[in-house]
Amino acid sequence: MLIPVLLARPMAGMNHSMAAPMSMGDMPIPMNIVVLSILVHTAAMLVVTGMLALVFFELYEKVGLKILRHAWFNFDLLWALALLVAAVAVLVY
User: Fold this and answer.
1) Domain boundaries in the chain?
2) Per-residue confidence (pLDDT) for residue 80, from 0 to 100
3) Alpha carbon distances (Å) from 71 to 31, 66, 67, 87
4) pTM attached to this predicted model
């Protein structure tokens, strides 16, 4: 998900005869920044996934499946909304 956003700006060493000349506002992003941002994003996703797994495991150990009779949260809807918000943020950017 990060690659289209990060690659929207030219990176260092990307010169093409058909490309328009860059102004000072269009400075290229160094490749190490791109790789670092992808690694940070991956690490953050793993940490959040691990934390959610621990929380839900503890909840299941205490309550079991009884909670599904009283409360249900649609994670598909949450994921769809998160993707829409991210898409709008990318388009606005």
Assistant:
1) 2-11+26-92
2) 94
3) 46, 9, 6, 29
4) 0.49
